[in-house]
Design goal:
Blueprint lengths: L2 H9 L12 H4 L2 H4 L12 E2 L5 E3 L4 E4 L8 E6 L4 E6 L9 E4 L8 E10 L10 E2 L6 E9 L5 H4 L6 E11 L7 H4 L11 E3 L17 E6 L10 E6 L3 E4 H8 L25 E3 L3 H6 L16
Parallel strand pairs: 1-8, 2-15, 10-13, 10-14
Antiparallel strand pairs: 3-6, 4-5, 4-11, 5-7, 6-7, 7-9, 9-10, 12-13, 12-15
């Protein structure tokens, strides 16, 4: 295997390590196998719009998000979720990446994969909550710091990952933009089933219409090994999905051939962490003399 293929393979290593369950009794045991799951910067958390600190932060720049993703795209049921990974076999084209917002000027984060969390009922499923609301599904777009050669390396550094969190909200009609993923979902009904995505897709088509407002905090992976290496950016505007489309996710099966549902982690204690919200209202702009806020000295914890 040549070095380019090896790097491409390493980039698609899933975050999940080993078997674990999502029942309350199972989640309580995560720390026995994965010590980081008992850390002080764990995710997900409950986000309050009133308690978050509003700042006129720079925009989150998303490069390549409107282009069709290059290379071969794979959907896989890993028994805990369904993930779409990017096999960058189109070397002439760069993978999408992000920078800006609260990220240091010299750091760019390249997309690695995305996956979903959903519930058995419409009143639950998302991992984060916003103002006490738990949405029926949440998508995570995982980005790796380009300073690190692969995902495993990034997991060892506190600035290793940025994850974009997107809520889904029920509506009557189907969301046609989800069709490229849903079209092949039937091919991964069982654990370890994997298929190529048959329809091209852009990451922008999976985002909410309004990406100007988002919440930011320092946290962790929401699955074992729970490394505390994630800058979370949670969009406040949800993406629409119909009940029929959501039920396609609920038709997947896990390791025990039971329905793969309620694959979300319980809320974790925010402790002394700060949550910022990008909000460009007249008050926040006036507070900073009409200039875009300088994130260089941003503090992430209450003293």
């Amino acid at each position: 295997m040549n070095i380019i293929k090896l790097i491409s393979l390493l980039m698609t290593i899933p975050l999940i390590r080993g078997h674990f369950g999502y029942r309350k009794s199972d989640q309580h045991k995560w720390t026995q196998k994965f010590k980081s799951c008992g850390g002080k910067l764990q995710s997900p958390v409950s986000i309050s719009s009133l308690k978050s600190i509003p700042l006129p932060l720079p925009a989150l720049e998303m490069i390549g998000y409107h282009d069709y993703l290059p290379g071969t795209l794979h959907l896989k049921n890993n028994g805990h979720s369904v993930a779409m990974s990017l096999h960058n076999d189109a070397r002439s084209k760069r993978l999408p990446y992000i920078f800006g917002a609260t990220l240091p000027d010299n750091e760019e984060y390249q997309v690695d994969h995305l996956h979903f969390h959903w519930g058995a009922k419409n009143s639950r499923g998302s991992e984060h909550t916003l103002d006490g609301v738990r949405y029926p599904m949440e998508m995570h777009i995982v980005h790796r710091n380009k300073a690190y050669s692969n995902l495993s390396d990034a997991l060892n550094h506190e600035n290793g990952l940025v994850v974009l969190g997107i809520f889904f909200q029920l509506q009557e009609e189907n969301n046609k933009l989800l069709h490229p993923i849903l079209n092949d979902l039937k091919e991964v009904q069982w654990m370890n089933n994997e298929t190529r995505l048959s329809i091209p897709i852009t990451l922008a088509s999976l985002l909410p219409r309004n990406t100007d407002v988002f919440y930011v905090y320092k946290g962790s992976l929401t699955t074992p090994p729970c490394n505390e290496v994630v800058t979370w950016m949670i969009f406040s505007t949800p993406v629409p999905i119909s009940l029929k489309q959501l039920n396609w996710f609920r038709s997947l099966h896990n390791k025990d051939e039971k329905m793969l549902v309620d694959n979300y982690r319980k809320l974790q204690d925010l402790r002394m962490r700060k949550v910022y919200v990008r909000r460009l209202n007249s008050y926040s702009v006036r507070n900073y003399n009409g200039t875009i806020f300088n994130v260089t000295n941003l503090t992430w914890f209450w003293q």
